[in-house]
Specification:
Elements: H1 9-31, H2 38-45, H3 49-55, H4 59-78, H5 95-111, H6 113-128, H7 130-157, H8 167-184, H9 191-205
Helix pairs in contact: 1-2, 1-4, 1-6, 2-3, 4-6, 5-9, 6-7, 7-8, 8-9
Length: about 210
Amino acid sequence: MAQKTAPDSNRRSERSRRAIYDAALALVGEIGYPKTTIEGIAARAGVGKQTIYRWWSSKAEVLMEAFIDLGVQAAEAAGAGDWAEADGIPDTGDIEADLKAVLRATVDELLDPRYDAPARALAAEGVANPAFGAEFVGRLLMPALELYVRRLRAAQDAGQIRADVDPYIARDLFSAPLAQRWLQGTGPLDHAYADALVEYALYGLSPR
């Protein structure tokens, strides 16, 4: 008599978690963050809302983990050469080319509808809810921004950037204008703008 295999609870939980991620991202893109609810996410994912509350306390937390997972999935799909992986921004020896490559990739991501709506929702929630904002910055923004600092320090070691430059301030010369233009729509967001940011910033950072 054949033995019955017990259901794999871990696999079932992973399927539910994945369905919840997909549902949260889809709803925010379709109806907007304000109208997205835990109940709506649960219905879209085909799970009970108690399942969601067992893992998260708010829709903001659901969306943040879904967004982080989206980034992980994209990095894995891109392969080992993707700049956002643990190894950081590639160091080809050409700081200008490397920074242009990463800013262009960032522009492409910000213009991708899969990222745009949830990213804007998380940024807005972070402003309205300081506690969530601190978590959002710590888990999402700072790890990515630290990659710039590491690459800029390597450029300093190679003599491509002045040794007295603060890499954290230098990092903001690239990332802050890009984020502002994306959030406020003050001008076109494209590869030409990304390249110009790098060229303008490096003109002031190059050794004298």
